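Below is a filled-in request sheet from our internal design queue. Each sheet records the structural input a requester submitted and the sequence that came back. We keep these sheets so that new team members can see what a complete request looks like end to end.

REQUESTER: design group, bay 2
PRIORITY: normal
MODE: inverse folding
CHAIN LENGTH: 451
BACKBONE (tokenized):
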């Protein structure tokens, strides 16, 4: 684990945040990032760096991984976004193999040129049919879709009204497109109304794009989509909803919160990602305007100037949509919801604060970042693979564990996770949440596979 005391005086891995290193100063582009690396490496070498782990096996309920320092961990996996376990589904793998045999592995071009395949064209139509929107455009990643649609449509004089907790791709797209970015309070319709009223009181000539998510990825909560669409109509704005985390895996028909709120086909713009439910990378934007689709094809730079989805990706996602729309998909969603409810109940019985509403995302509020880092280190040692989320991804002092549930998790998997969490919290409770020295923190070895 290394000599803690020799470095802790200068660098404390239980304090500090990524935010402090986001805007480095100095004339040497290389030298000025050294303080971040020193802080990061102190955390890495002592088991407190929870990012950039790698899998040695498929992302299934039981998984072998390595942390960023190469230490092996084997245990129950609640850190993967394969919500319906489609990445290892036999039909999905067969579709991928067939696409490779037919097309090879590469699209070999942008979708604006010769990068489309028959699979991507069929997939676009399948998404349009699923969402009851006439036109769909594919992007190489979900991030590219969120960024590209905003950057493609919004100009410097326009306005973006966006939820304060919206995803990075949406925030970055807005900031790249216009200086007129207005953050509204999370899920607050009165806040949206006030901003729209203020903008229109001073600007009746330029456009407004309102942006939200159907299921927020940190807190598993959702807006009133119908009310937001009505507000946009009232003030001459357009609404975009990011459905990355609930499309396909939530609701009786798999249409997520848009379907649950009976807004299928009624939202101005819907964008999403294939990386959660649909067993691949990639993203899309769907709407009822052919003009908007074609404009984004050539002015949504993150798609225009990137290679299109590979035929393997398109065929994989297409098969995933078939499964999602089938009886099998309905059964998988039911299993996923049963697991989510069981996990939420088990965590609540331990006295833990569980955020949001039942979904594939189950977030536990921990608060203090230093304490959460110690608990995270213990969890890895106990064979529980989870994601620690800390500032600035959440508010300062609001660290949480984001557990991601799969349809194929068993009750035993969930019980093992809850037991590991109980023990990790108990073992960490004797450490101060505001530790300034690691001398008294017992660092546990990671559990290797087979132990």
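RETURNED SEQUENCE:
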């Amino acid at each position: 684990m290394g000599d803690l005391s020799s470095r802790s005086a200068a660098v404390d891995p239980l304090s500090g945040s990524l935010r402090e290193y986001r805007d480095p100063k100095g004339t040497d582009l290389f030298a000025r990032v050294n303080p971040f690396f020193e802080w990061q490496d102190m955390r890495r070498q002592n088991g407190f760096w929870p990012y950039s782990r790698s899998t040695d096996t498929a992302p299934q309920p039981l998984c072998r991984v390595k942390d960023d320092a190469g230490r092996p961990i084997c245990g129950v996996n609640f850190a993967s976004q394969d919500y319906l376990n489609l990445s290892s589904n036999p039909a999905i793998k067969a579709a991928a193999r067939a696409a490779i045999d037919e097309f090879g592995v590469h699209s070999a071009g942008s979708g604006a040129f010769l990068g489309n395949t028959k699979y991507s064209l069929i997939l676009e139509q399948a998404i349009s049919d699923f969402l009851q929107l006439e036109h769909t455009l594919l992007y190489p990643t979900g991030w590219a879709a969120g960024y590209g649609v905003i950057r493609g449509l919004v100009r410097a004089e326009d306005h973006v009204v966006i939820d304060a907790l919206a995803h990075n791709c949406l925030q970055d797209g807005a900031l790249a497109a216009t200086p007129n970015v207005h953050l509204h309070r999370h899920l607050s319709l009165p806040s949206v109304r006030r901003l729209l009223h203020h903008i229109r009181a001073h600007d009746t000539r330029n456009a407004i794009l309102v942006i939200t998510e159907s299921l927020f990825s940190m807190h598993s909560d959702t807006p009133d989509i119908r009310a937001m669409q009505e507000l946009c109509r009232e003030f001459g704005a357009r609404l975009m909803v990011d459905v990355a985390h609930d499309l396909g895996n939530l609701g009786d028909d798999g249409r997520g919160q848009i379907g649950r709120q009976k807004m299928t086909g009624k939202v101005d713009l819907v964008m999403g990602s294939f990386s959660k439910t649909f067993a691949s990378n990639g993203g899309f934007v769907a709407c009822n305007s052919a003009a908007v689709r074609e404009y984004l094809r050539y002015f949504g730079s993150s798609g225009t100037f990137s290679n299109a989805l590979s035929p393997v990706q398109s065929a994989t996602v297409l098969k995933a949509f078939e499964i999602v729309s089938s009886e099998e998909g309905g059964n998988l969603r039911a299993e996923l919801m049963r697991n989510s409810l069981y996990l939420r109940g088990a965590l609540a019985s331990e006295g833990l604060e569980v955020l949001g509403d039942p979904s594939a995302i189950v977030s536990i509020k921990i608060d203090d970042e230093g304490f959460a880092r110690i608990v995270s280190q213990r969890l890895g040692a106990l064979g529980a693979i989870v994601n620690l989320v800390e500032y600035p991804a959440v508010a300062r002092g609001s660290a949480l564990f984001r557990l991601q549930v799969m349809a194929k998790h068993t009750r035993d998997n969930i019980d093992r996770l809850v037991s590991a969490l109980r023990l990790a919290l108990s073992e960490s409770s004797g450490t101060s949440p505001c530790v300034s020295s690691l001398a008294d923190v017992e660092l546990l070895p990671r559990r290797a596979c087979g132990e």
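SHEET NOTES:
- The chain has two domains: 11-25+47-83+328-428, 90-323.
- Residues 1-9, 432-440 have pLDDT under 50 and may be disordered.
FILED BY: M.R.
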